[in-house]
Design goal:
single chain; 293 residues; alpha/beta; Nucleotidyltransferase, domain 5; 2 domains; four-stranded mixed sheet; 12 helices; globular; ATPase BadF/BadG/BcrA/BcrD type domain-containing protein; Euk-type_GlcNAc_Kinase; ATPase_NBD; ATPase_BadF
């Protein structure tokens, strides 16, 4: 008797964990959504989020609860590119039949290219680049804010906020962008801004990113210079990715479509559209790893 095989893909990030459950024939059976799943932030929370999302996917597929023990799983998690946190995740006693552990970048890349190899540039709240070419993985950026994440939403907001403080110190003239930052933060003194931003996370800085984009569309000089700086960085990264000769190259993330319009024509011609989600990519990797299990 041939038993049905189930493949589960997990996309675990700093704010949420998504699960996708497929049959051995590639049919979508169920999905799940839970909390943060970045071991670098909290290994215990990440573990519980993974189990919760997996259980939701099994339940939404109307399968028995014990099905979770038969799953062939790929975990694509933020933070596990750092060896210490990968070690924490590898030590988990997971209930699945088989588990492949990799990074969230790897599954995002695999999903963006329909289950195949390729390269991606991610620009959302953070930014990073990843390539998979002949089973060799290359990561660029992804160092986290404020060490990295250039051309991200957090970086755009940080640049705007830094310029606003410089204008308040009379080191540069105020501009419509710095005025917009003050208005949004409801602050008219530098100490007020510093007090508000003292414990800002990446997502808090990213809230200011739309101000930069809006002012750049009005050709405001400060905003335009910030956008040009970000586009120069992305151009350099995309050129470096293309030198690796990936099968496909794409940009993904909440700011991807905006940035692509600001890249040189020769760079835009290198780009292909993203095909599928990171969870799809995780399932594809689980299928590749355990199809004979």
């Amino acid at each position: 008797m041939i038993h049905q095989q189930y493949f589960l893909g997990i996309d675990g990030g700093g704010t949420k964990c998504k699960a996708r459950l497929e049959s051995q024939n590639g049919e979508l059976l169920g999905e799940g959504l839970s909390g943060p799943a970045n071991p670098a932030q909290s290994a215990d929370i990440a573990f519980n989020s993974i189990i919760d999302a997996a259980a939701q996917a099994v339940a939404s597929a109307n399968l028995p609860t014990e099905t979770i023990k038969t799953l062939h799983v790929c975990l694509g998690l933020a933070g596990v590119n750092i060896p210490a946190y990968r070690g924490l995740a590898e030590a988990w006693k997971l209930p699945f039949a088989n588990t492949l552990l990799t990074t969230d970048l790897h599954i995002a890349c695999t999903g963006a290219h329909g289950g195949q190899e390729g390269a991606i540039m991610i620009t959302g709240t953070g930014s990073s680049a990843f390539a998979s070419v002949d089973n060799v993985h290359t990561i660029m950026g992804g160092h986290g804010f404020p060490l990295g994440d250039k051309a991200s939403g957090a970086w755009l907001g940080w640049r705007a906020l830094s310029a606003t403080l410089e204008s308040m110190d009379n080191l540069m003239p105020s501009t419509p962008l710095t005025d917009a930052v003050c208005e949004q933060l409801q602050a008219c003194k530098s100490v007020d801004i510093v007090a508000k931003a003292l414990h800002f996370r990446s997502s808090d800085y990213a809230v200011l990113a739309p101000l930069v984009v809006a002012q750049a569309k009005q050709n405001e000089s400060l905003a335009t210079s910030i956008i040009e700086d970000g586009a120069t960085y992305l151009t350099a990264v995309l050129l470096r990715l293309s030198e690796l000769n990936p099968q496909r190259l794409t940009m993904i993330g909440g700011l991807a479509s905006y940035w692509s319009d600001h890249l040189p024509d020769n760079i835009q011609r290198l780009l292909s559209p993203a095909l599928c989600s990171p969870e799809y990519g995780a399932v594809a990797l689980a299928r590749q790893a355990f199809k004979e299990a």
